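**Discrete fold encoding**
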Amino acid sequence: MELARSAGILLHPTSLPSGNLGRDAYRFVDWLAAAGQSWWQVLPLGPPDEFRSPYRSPSAFAASPQLLARPDARVTAGEVEDFLARHPFWAGSWASFAGEGATADQVRFEREWGALRDHAAERGVRLIGDLPIYVSDEGADLAGWPELFTRREIAGAPPDALNATGQRWGNPLYDWPAHRATGYRWWRERLRRTFELVDLCRIDHFRGFVSYWAIPARNATAKSGRWRPGPGAELFRALEHEFGDLPLIAEDLGHITPPVYRLRDEFGLPGMVVLLWAFRGRARSPHRPENHRPNSVAYTSTHDTDTAVGWFAGLKRREQVATGLDPDEPHWSLIELAYGSRPALTIVPAQDVLGLGSEARMNRPGMTKGNWGWRLERGALTPALARRLRSLAEHHGRI
């Protein structure tokens, strides 16, 4: 898909002052509209794990009841039956897994999210979701469709310069021949559910569809895993046949091989660039502004990196000078660089708009505790900040 030139803000609903879809969410949408923003990007909307991570949810389909502003709102038996009838593929298995009241919570979420999405659409703001490639090893998906997963190997990442033993994520891996035999129905249903909730979606770990690191389940580290082939274009052709042009963003960060870029480009999917990484590495780095592609999404930072201010503070003095960024407001220099860059869409985490340091970081990959807890202070996103962002958006043709 081709993106129109525009801008947005990354803020998960749990980072709103109330942490839910109530009044603070509506105030945030109004602020986005005042700031000339066309997009609100969120993280995965599923129930989080015990460490609050939304990337290891017990369901690839269900939404988190923790986001509800009115968790005790009345739900009728007819509404429950109607929801089950409209979501026959997954709602029953989720109810069996999650227990009494699980479907009622999904009805409540549908009400609240639908009303918020309508409010946003009326103000010209659309929603970007996030789709983790893998599912939980303790969730409803493995319990409901065990035939679609392999038990012999688990997911992870190979050893690299930062981690000599690699990363052992522990997620179950897909049995791709089994998925192929069903015409990739599980994936088609997963995307159908995703597109019910958002207008555009980022797919995490996109390279895993080309090849993925498989670790023997008995191994304590990821060191002795091996690369195995993913479904590649066959899966995306099935999805394209079902939905037409795919409103997806390919998370193509890290060590990416040419076949990954070919798969991304075959289906016209925007990739990602991160401006924090534009000041290091080789001259051909995709993150350097001169190498940016128009059909891509430029981020100042992401939920997995430090904030712009935290990153800049961690540089040596000579490194700070070499960036050319304003040392008094490095975050605004980075935002201006993003807005003026070639990518059609630019996304700025709320922490970077506010100029917050490492204390506001959302996630530190590799650490299970201490993440996902940052919250916005009520009133921090001021009208003055909205005017400043809107002026930038107007100047760079992103309104």
